[in-house]
Amino acid sequence: MKRSQIVIIVSLAIFIISLTQTAVYTKGNEMHAFACFLLGWMDLFGEGVAWLANPLFFIALFFLLLKQVKISTVFSFLAICMSLYYLSAESITVDEAGHKSPIVSYGLGYYLWIASGLSLFIGNLILLRSPLKVQA
Q1: What pTM did the predictor assign?
Q2: Using one digit for the tens of pLDDT, what is the confidence trace for 11-33?
Q3: Which residues are registered as beta bridge partners of 92?
Q4: Which of 23, 50, 53, 47 is closest to 35 using CA atoms?
Q5: pLDDT digit string, tens, across residues 98-133
Q6: Which of 93, 103, 126, 136 is exposed most, by the fewest CB atoms within 10 A?
Q7: How would residue 46 be classed by pLDDT, with cut points 50, 70 and 90?
Q8: pLDDT in the model for residue 47
Q9: Strand 91-93 and strand 100-106: pairing?
Q10: Do 64 and 8 contact (CB within 8 A), yes or no?
Q11: Nearest CA among 78, 38, 40 for reference residue 59
């Protein structure tokens, strides 16, 4: 198995596992990561702009599949920055009607979401620095 395939599989596995966990705790409620993934686009012009880390992550994976490691590195770095930006959010959209609730803390799903982008970024850096770029 090629090293780039391992990076893709590990990053995707962490991302998928993150979707099964609680991402955000609000007053009297919790938001699972899958719900955040589905509803996050609804607040793109507000605090939900961090949701854009998801398409950036998948674009980075796509470029890694195309063996464009440098481009994938840039997109994975941007995905990490966007996901970390969510730490500045004060509230989250909790339903399809657009109701918001203040964020109390972050759960394992959020940290695994960051870890998926981080694993992709670190994997890209390893691929860039490796002497055998033919296998990238």
Answers
A1: 0.87
A2: 999 999 999 999 999 887 888 89
A3: 101
A4: 23
A5: 677 888 999 999 999 999 999 999 999 999 998 754
A6: 126
A7: low
A8: 66
A9: antiparallel
A10: yes
A11: 78
d(CA 43, CA 49): 7
Strand order of the β-sheet with 100-106 is 29-32, 22-26, 100-106, 91-93
How far from chain centre, in Å, is Cα 28? Answer: 25
d(CA 115, CA 131): 26
For 12-36, letters b (16+ CB in 10 Å) and e give: bebbebbbebbbbbbeeeebbbebb
83: its two tokens: 């996901």
The type of residue at 118 is L
Closest CA to 8 of 132, 131, 123: 123
* Residue 66, helix vs strand vs coil: coil
- Which residue in the block uniquely carries the two structure tokens 């590990």? 10
